[in-house]
Design brief:
Layout: H1 12-33, H2 35-38, H3 40-53, E1 58-64, E2 67-72, E3 86-90, H4 92-95, H5 97-108, H6 113-143, H7 146-149, H8 156-185, H9 187-197
Antiparallel strand pairs: 1-2, 2-3
Helix pairs in contact: 1-5, 3-6, 5-6, 5-8, 6-8
């Protein structure tokens, strides 16, 4: 490091944080542009769960790039004919942990960063699917008008569980999972950072 470097930037922790902040716009930009490809496994997982556990509620799932449309078996109400209820879910809402994890990983500058990115991606995908499914269930069981929600057959406790799953999948999982995962995969890096800071 150059001797004229400001004292503030001589800290390895400061340099890491600055690098992570510099990587964030890059990773978020790539994530947004590549979302249809990155979220394709999420769609497959959501479709699998819907086919196995939600057959009586989901007729089909249509993809529009970054969003999924759940075509349900529910009717909008009496006198509407053959209409059905559909629910749109934006998968990006639950997938912002992907670029966050990528920025932290690239800022650490570890030799096997590509392997770490692959592991992180594979672990985060199921949690994104959790959020998408919880959003869909919230849409038909809690937010929908009573005439539609009553067709789902969910009991009071089941609606409470759906509300909890939605809150957990929206507020906790997208930010906490990538952070915890990054710490677990970078323990050696954090130990070196601690020693250098000391």
């Amino acid at each position: 490091m150059r001797p004229d470097t400001p004292q503030f930037f001589r800290s390895p922790l400061t340099r890491f944080v600055a690098a992570a902040l510099a990587w964030l716009p890059v990773t978020f930009g790539a994530w947004y542009l590549l979302a249809p490809v990155l979220l394709w496994p999420v769609r497959l997982l959501v479709e699998f769960v819907a086919n196995v556990g939600l057959r009586d509620l989901v007729r089909a799932i249509e993809s529009a790039g970054r969003s999924l449309t759940f075509v349900t078996t529910l009717k909008p109400g009496e006198g509407v004919g053959a209409g059905v209820v559909s629910v749109d879910v934006n998968m990006l809402v639950y997938a912002f942990g992907m670029p966050l994890f990528a920025a932290l990983t690239l800022a650490a500058r570890e030799a096997s960063w590509w392997r770490t990115l692959a592991i992180g991606y594979a672990v985060i995908v199921p949690f994104v699917a959790w959020g998408v499914l919880a959003d869909f269930l919230k849409g038909i069981a809690i937010v929908a008008p009573a005439a539609i929600a009553s067709q789902t057959g969910f009991s009071g406790p089941q609606r409470e569980a759906i509300a909890f799953a939605y809150q957990f999948g929206t507020l906790i999982l997208p930010a906490v999972v990538p952070a915890v995962l990054w710490v677990l995969l970078h323990r050696a890096f954090l130990e070196r950072l601690r020693r250098r800071a000391g």
